[in-house]
Specification:
3 domains; two-stranded antiparallel sheet; elongated
Length: 443
């Protein structure tokens, strides 16, 4: 141990890429990050930092160890890893290149009064994870946000969302699986929502929205859950501009000049309430602008089976909304259109849903445009299934279709959820399936 300790030569260094002054530097020492282990908290982010100790399981030459310790640092892209979160991102490339099997993470934390102890926090196995390159897409934004969120005058909420992002990143670096990738998107979506609710903070520090993410995130974060599929279909409609005061261009995203834009209707109510609000606003805007179709088309259509699960209440709405916020950050203009397979429950979908959906389509049905009728959605949102169905039947008959029913009754809470489910985009084939259920064959 004494022979190995000789390699830990300390020296006074100046962090050329930081704003701090001179400090004592040791190999593999970074700023402390209060995330990534069970007892983590913001109080653990002491000024003494943390140290990542490399572990070998095979013989190695002393010259190789000396070379590794002489560098004493890890790279995240083109910059030096400054925090424990950065180091966790750099471990794969560093360990693979140097033959390191794992790292033991130590924090210098106060224990037994005012004494500092080197406390082992976690063991990090070195595994090459090419998907970690996705993190570089928002790396510049994260560095800027971290600097402002950890300031002395920053609101506590900013520090909380920052730690949520860093916690999700460190968990992802350990496993690299789809659920952890999805958690990063959820944390990013929550961060943008927090910034949207803090206009003075973001304007003071000139913080931009999270940059558009590549479609690679869609595949990497797909955990196969019904919540992910539903959230992806909603996000593909382009709901980011309805959730936050953000303007989205072809390759950029920026804040609107006003924080009370009429198209931003997503509030603190339930998920269903917000879906209905977005649906109503989009249809109303199309009517005011005299568009031919409703702006409800998506590049990632929903299966009728998943819609059935939503109407039945068999989904985790909190996670669905979190995934929706994160997936709206993707540049959906670059995503190829995808149709999910229709499930076996299409015949179990309520007839009321078929009526409402056929009267809220983005394109003509069977070559016939069905004009938007606000009263249909208003009555459905109020839980009045009978009147909503009568209005929808009247509209379909006026367009030459023959519904197979005169009116439909549903409980108020189910009717309310059906109204929200209308926002999910479906394919042409699924439209035809709904027509077979609720319409008679025209002769």
């Amino acid at each position: 141990m004494i022979e190995g300790a000789v390699l830990f030569g300390s020296a006074a260094t100046r962090r050329l890429q930081g704003s701090g002054g001179s400090e004592v530097g040791y190999p593999f020492v970074t700023r402390a990050a209060g995330v990534g282990y069970p007892s983590a908290s913001g109080a653990d982010e002491t000024p003494r930092g943390e140290m990542w100790m490399p572990i070998w399981t095979a013989p190695v030459r002393i010259s190789e160890v000396a070379a590794l310790f002489s560098e004493g640092k890890a790279q995240v892209g083109r910059r030096i890893a400054k925090t424990g979160v950065d180091f966790s991102r750099a471990i794969a490339a560093l360990g693979t290149d140097r033959g390191v099997q794992s790292f033991c993470r130590y924090g210098f934390q106060v224990r037994n009064g005012l004494a500092y102890f080197a406390t082992p926090l976690s063991r990090w196995r070195v595994v090459s994870r090419p998907e970690a390159n996705l993190l570089f897409e928002f790396d510049h934004w994260l560095v800027r946000f971290r600097r402002e969120a950890t300031g002395n005058t920053s609101p506590a909420r900013m520090g909380q969302v920052l730690r949520a992002i860093e916690r999700a990143i460190m968990e992802f670096c350990q496993t690299g699986d789809a659920p952890r990738t999805a958690n990063i998107l959820i944390a990013l979506g929550e961060a943008e929502a927090t910034l949207a609710q803090s206009p003075q903070f973001r304007k003071k520090h000139i913080l931009k929205p999270i940059p558009l993410l590549s479609p690679k995130w869609l595949e990497a974060a797909n955990d196969g859950s019904v919540e992910f599929r539903l959230a992806a279909s909603l996000a593909s409609v382009g709901l980011r501009e309805n959730m936050e005061p953000v303007q989205v261009g072809a390759v950029w995203a920026g804040w609107l000049d006003t924080d009370t834009h009429p198209r931003v209707v997503w509030g603190h109510g339930s998920l269903t309430d917000n879906l209905i609000a977005v649906l109503s606003r989009r249809c109303m805007n199309a009517q005011q602008e005299q568009r031919k179709g409703l702006p409800l088309a998506g590049r990632y259509t929903t299966s009728l089976n998943d819609i059935y699960e939503f109407i039945a209440g068999n989904v985790d709405e909190r996670r669905l909304e979190g995934l929706l916020r994160g997936l709206t950050l993707i540049n959906w203009r670059l995503v190829q259109e995808s149709t999910q397979a229709t499930g076996d429950h299409e015949s179990l979908l309520p007839g009321l849903y078929a009526l409402l959906k056929l009267t809220h389509l983005p394109n003509p049905f069977s070559g016939i445009s069905i004009p938007y009728m606000p009263a249909i959605l208003v009555r459905a949102a109020a839980g009045d299934a009978s009147e909503a169905s009568r209005q929808a039947i009247r509209r379909l008959r006026g367009c030459g279709f023959i519904p197979a029913v005169e009116a439909i009754s549903e409980p108020a809470n189910v009717t309310h959820r059906i109204a929200g489910a209308v926002l999910f985009p479906i394919s042409k084939r699924q439209e035809a399936c709904l027509a077979e259920v609720i319409l008679r064959t025209r002769t």
